[in-house]
Each structure stands twice: as C-alpha cells, then as structure tokens.
Amino acid sequence: xxxxxxxxxxxxxxxxxxxxxxxxxxxxxxxxxxxxxxxxxxxxxxxxxxxxxxxxxxxxxxxxxxxxxxxxxxxxxxxxxxxxxxxxxxxxxxxxxxxxxxxxxxxxxxxxxxxxxxxxxxxxxxxxxxxxxxxxxxxxxxxxxxxxxxxxxxxxxxxxxxxxxxxxxxxxxxxxxxxxxxxxxxxxxxxxxxxxxxxxxxxxxxxxxxxxxxxxxxxxxxxxxxxxxxxxxxxxxxxxxxxxxxxxxxxxxxxxxxxxxxxxxxxxxxxxxxxxxxxxxxxxxxxxxxxxxxxxxxxxxxxxxxxxxxxxxxxxxxxxxxxxxxxxxxxxxxxxxxxxxxxxxxxxxxxxxxxxxxxxxxxxxxxxxx
Length: 370
Prior knowledge:
The protein has 370 residues and is α+β, with helices and mostly antiparallel strands. It has helices at residues 141-153, 185-192, 197-216, 286-303, 316-322, 326-332, 339-348, 359-363, 366-369; strands at 48-49, 59-69, 77-85, 91-101, 105-115, 122-125, 132-138, 165-168, 172-178, 219-220, 229-231, 237-239, 246-247, 250-251, 256-257, 260-263, 281-284. The protein has two domains: 61-178, Phosphorylase Kinase, domain 1; 182-369, Transferase(Phosphotransferase) domain 1 (Transferase(Phosphotransferase), domain 1). Strands 2, 3, 4, 5, 6, 7, 8 and 9 form an eight-stranded mixed β-sheet that branches. A hairpin with a 3-residue loop joins β4 and β5 (105-115).
C-alpha cells in the first residue's frame, strides 16, 4: 500500500481476494498432469542472500492539534490533527483516513497548511495546492525496510511511486506521497467488470514500464497485485507498496540478477508464483517471480476473475493454465480473448521461471507491439 495514492485499498491480508469473482469452475477434468523437464543448469548455482537496502536517515517530526479555518465555511475554526516536518517546515492537516490496518499503519489524505496571517495561530489550506497522502507507520524493521526501498527506487518515473519526504516521531514514521483520486486497479475492475483489450493493454504497458524501472534498480517487488497499482489523474498506472520488496544481488559476470535466497510466504495468495507459494525460504529469480504476478494482473483485467486460486498442483485451474490450455479454459468460461492476448498470458504462465519471458521480450510480443 505501496506515490500517487489511491482511495482505500480493498484488502490488506495475504489471502486471495474473493471480492473479484472467480470464473465458474469447469466440470471437465484437465488432461493428466505432465511435469515439465527439470531446469538444466550446467554449473550449480549457489543462491545469494537478498541484500538490505541502504538506510535512510530521517529527520524529526511530530503530531499536534492546530486550529484550522474550515475550507468551506471560512467563519468556522476547527481543531484538527496535524503532522509537522521539522526539516521542510511543512504542516500537514491529516484530513481523512483512507486506510487503516490495525494499529500499525494508517493512511491519510492530507493538505499542506499555512498561517492565515503572519504569527497567527490559525491555519488554512494553501490555495490551489493538490492534496498528498501520508502513510503513518508504527516504527518497526518492516516500516524502515519499506521506506528504505522507496528511497532506493526514487521518485523519477511516472509509473512508480516514490515519496516526497519522510520524517519520524518517537513512535511513528511518516511517509508523504502524491495522491491519486482515481483509485486502485482492483476497484476499477470490480466496478466496471472486465476491461477492453485496448484499455487493459494501455494499463499493462504502464505496469511493464514501471516494473522495468524497478528491476533496473535491482529491486524485486514480490507483491504485485491490482490493489498495488494506482491510477493517476491522467489514467496512468503507478506501482506502489514495497512492504515485501528486496534488493536483488547482482552477478557481474552475467550482468544480471543472481538467483537469491529470501523469505517466502509473502504477497497475496492468488498472485504468488508456483516456485514461491507455501515456502518459508525460497531460492528465486526475482524478476521472473514478478513476471508471474504480472500475468495474474493482466488476466484479471481481461477476464474479471483470477486464472486460478493459487499456483499449486492441487488446484485444477493451475494445472490447466501451466499446460498451455488457457484458451480452452477461458472459452469454457465464456471469456473472449484475442489470440495475441492469449499468447502473452501463455508465455507468462510457465511453471519453470526460466521459461517465462523478460519484460523486454513481453514488450516485443505482437499484442503489445501494436
């Protein structure tokens, strides 16, 4: 929760999202499962432990109640909760809660304030200044990891969420980000049903571009989902939420990320790649596990449902998908997809990470190249 921020995300646990309907189950049993051959690696690969992000030194801030002139009824003065950054000297009115996860994090829509006149103790919103989002996170190693990841990724790509500033009080970390009023991709699909291929392609290109930038920073997201893709005012997609992001170790000889060892069991169940799901410790190609999640997002946009409940052999839908029979499956569900769109999904949904395309290869496929 992962920036041009959206309105409240639909859910935040690590389970599958039941709010988006599953396509009706088929009663036709899939063909006998034939496992693909094991990946042939001529030289044994020793996984490298995922690296920590450089630590961000944050300045101090605090919360207080200030007297604020009502933005609609200017004669009315209200006391409201505010967050203040001592470095930027900005005063943020915490206007409305967008999201609240138990007691450890709350997301607010916020407005920058100024005194109504010099040395006044009454404040007002700065005219014509867009709101921001402030994520208030209780201090923890996880909170610092997310902030460190955002700092490492930066704020220089239109399809990637960075932060405007961060500061900390005795108990909390405050992350100030851009605000997106159009919501998250999950809400768009839930409200409108399946998207046209033209619209889905536009969004998918945005996500590809953002993820390519993140990977170029040697970062594996690990929690890509429709809930973690926000829509800007210009209808562009922005990737957010780096709670589970890790920095990928780099292999100088191949000029590519190394296979890395990191904690598993993260992300949302319906999106997790088969080599990751259900494992406490995983050895993965971070780029290719992210690519699997891209495929789930694309399928959800085109079909208004998940291709499978989870990527395990006990799920018959998963067996259909990884056998390349996605076309048979969607036709039984009454979902019409072009052959070019199906080619993209078939390319992504490979059991072996080595068989999945890179982002550049995806961009060159016919459906995306047009």
